Amino acid sequence: MKSFLLILIPLVLASCEMGYKNDGKEVTYHSWNEGSGHTSFRVKADPATFEDLGDDYGRDKHHAFLEGSIIEGADGATFKYLGHCYSVDANHVFCYDTIMSTADPKSFKVHSALLTEDKKDYYWCGNAIQVVDKKTFIVLGDIDNWETSWGKDKKNGYYLGSGTVSLADVASFHPIKVTRGVMSGAYAADKKRVYFKNHVVEGADPATFREVSFYVGQDKNRVYSEWHPTEIKDFASLKEVGGMYTDGHHIYSRDLVRFDGADPDTFEGLGDNWYADKQHIWWSNTLVKEADVQSFEPVVLYTFFTGTKESMGSDFNYGKDAYHVFFRDSIIEGADPATFEKIDFDGSWTVFDKNHIYEGKNSEKLQKYLKAKNKNNSR
After folding, report:
1. Which pTM does this prediction carry?
2. pLDDT of residue 16
3. Cα-to-chain-centroid distance, residue 57
């Protein structure tokens, strides 16, 4: 049965004719997703002059379109789709539907989904790199790989899309190789310095420096959070506790700053952003002073996306105990912890209790849910 469904889905999608359809009287755009299934709408285009340019782009004599919507500022008569989400008209260069304000449409070239250029500059993900010496500029990695982060010319280094890096030694400048797991690739070095994006990692040893976790570096002397040195000597000595860390003696925040007052033996993560030990509750690394440790819990997220109520884990910001509801480290005055909920009814979140709606709207689906809940509670 599973194999049959896998075969059937592409057939159904093909029969729905995804993308543009022009019957000579009107242009329509068709799409499909798991939540809403097949949807379509009329495109504000002239059927007589409309052209499907591929990859969800189109144009007529007046306008250019992406996924059926008009690309604001684009002249349909001169519009050209260049591939990889880039397009031009007589006056502008576009990345998707956003104008690349400094790019020159007459000289613009697409090298990959990430790297483009014009006569003045190179661009990474649609952002000007602001290259100083264009003739000698090179990307230090695969130009079509989103994990590539660095480039250089004969004068400077570049954290691509984010700025110029003033180097101690251009010739030896190189990205620090990512060797395991999910890393950022945001570290680089030359023979004299280590760099995090466009910052110098002060005091770091280039010969022994490596990225050991996302935005965390290590050399022979210590651990670094982004470009900041920490008091921690060996990252391997730390144990992760719900996104924070412990060395058995102290608790450290996500950016590896020690905070006092927590008991390492009983410290635990309760869910996203929420932590506890035997005496305290924290939101991130902020103490929630009024929280009752014995009864506290993060608010559970629910959704009706599949038609039935299903849990989506815990909320980042809302928690409750037997006496209060908290937004981060503050009490929500008057909120009822027994009936407080956060539910996605129709693609937007509603936060409510029996007395108030705190976020979202008083929708028909909310009223239907409350009616059913009250009926069940009265039995």
Report:
1. 0.81
2. 52
3. 25
